[in-house]
Design brief:
The protein has 250 residues and is of the alpha+beta class. Helices cover 16% and strands 41% of the residues. The chain has helices spanning 2-26, 47-51, 79-84, 115-118, and strands spanning 38-39, 42-46, 59-61, 67-70, 90-93, 101-106, 129-139, 148-158, 162-173, 179-194, 198-205, 208-210, 214-216, 220-221, 236-241, 244-249. Strands 1, 7, 8, 9, 10, 11 and 14 form a seven-stranded antiparallel β-sheet that branches. A five-stranded antiparallel β-sheet has the order 2-6-5-4-3. A four-stranded antiparallel β-sheet has the order 12-13-15-16, with no helix packed on it. The longest helix is centred in the N-terminal third of the chain and has 25 residues, at 2-26. The termini are far apart. Mean pLDDT is 81; it is low at 73-86.
Length: 250
Amino acid sequence: MNTEFAMARRLLLLLICFCVRSVQAQQPQKAAVVLPVQPLRFQRLTAREIWADAHERNNVQTSDRRFVGFSGERMDSTAFGKVYGRATPVLLYRKTRADSVWTAINLVLPDYASHEVRGPLQWENEGYRKMDIFRIDTVNLDHRGEPEVLVGVVMDCCGNTSHTEHFAVNIIDVNGTPKSLLSALIETRDVGYSSDNGFTTQYEMRNIKMTSELLVSRIKTNRYGQKSLLTLLKSGRYCYRDGHLVWVGK
């Protein structure tokens, strides 16, 4: 009797396991979140070509003096100006501090996520717009070769009664042919003034940080009920695998 009961119980458990696996197999599997990669324009330039009239350009450099950011505001007779123009921010990279030849890499400037709200985002340095590189971080996300580079770009738009700021980041792999792992608009801030209401501020923002992983926070905003202007990006942790940033969880 006990033997028959045990066998029946075992058959029931096997039937339950089979049914559960069948249901799981029929359910659609969620696709992995893998960020696209974009090859970047670049050119090799000597230190003499780059640093001519350098005092007239905005720049930021890391402590090891191997990664330098230029806002590229000028057009002049140097090779740097001819290649990159006046509105393209550039990351300069060299393998060692003794190298006299640099790799000049064009950054990718993102657009508004919602064109219905604002239309295309204009990054050009003209009129009341001013663009600058404000941040450079380096972390070796895949523990291979050179560290990956996070470059932060800001644009200020100033008017008589308004002030707008846009913040974007590029994450670049400089190993081999430079490529963009991420180009994202991460913050917009609008400050307006009227004689009736004084100063009012509307904003959207998220934090992006590189540690052993890429950490992307949720969006904070006071523009509730409106379409987001920031680059569509799932919050959480991303690892660098097989040449792509891959979402691995919260």
